[in-house]
User: Fold this.
Amino acid sequence: MSERSAATGRRRLPPWLKVKLGKAGQSQATRELLQRHGVHTVCQSARCPNIGECFGSGTATFLLLGNACTRACGFCAVGHSRPEPLDPDEPARIAAAAADLGLSFVVLTSVTRDDLPDGGAGAFAATIGALRGRLPEVQVEVLTPDFGGDRGALAVVLDAGPDVFNHNVETVRRLQPVVRPQAAYERSLGVLAAAGELAPGRPVKSGLMVGLGETDDEVRETMADLRAVGVSRLTLGQYLRPSAQQLPVERYVPPEQFDEYRRWGLEMGFAHVASGPFVRSSYHAALDARVAGEGTLGP
Assistant:
């Protein structure tokens, strides 16, 4: 049988890539709640394969700064266009949605806004403040863009007191120009290092996708680079092409290799490594935060 499907033009999925659909009723209720509050999620905008499971359990990852990105990464399904002006009510709406969902752990991410002087850092800070005002005991993980390497913008986010700081390197050094043409590997490493310097003791997290053409040796090298700049939590997952407009999948990594990645990471000294075909930055983030066992800093 051909490796590629003539009907879809995509690689056939191996048997271990079985998407969990979750509870349909709860999933629909989550969608309706998010729509009612007028908030965006990366689950929907990026066409995450885990959306059924996560929405079915009543959780979501909020997408700040609108739904249009100023960059065009080769792996991402989020729309690339001229963004709308900032919405000053967005932080309050996200806080209200989180409260209605009953979340005790919230993950915030955003589109990249190179058009903004602070890259959107102020919106992250405002949303953390709105969440803590509405849900005083809530824990917050932020997954930020690189802010163009602006240390001042990064400090604005960290000063707001997120419990976990995350910035993804996404792929190995060699593939950065194809996968993230407007980003830079060294810049991302610099952001992660600066996060540890600006907020000592705050857990710093990063992640990468596999299946884009990298070798396992390159994966290991990237893991070592991340550990060297102070990253203590790591996620590794299979790249799955959101649509025909994104980069093709070059390989499907078997579960046993993801187990090997996890073993490498723990040997390198990471406090926690989530490694598996469906692992994403925010997938089971609350559970991972508990398992990691590191101290976190509040506001």
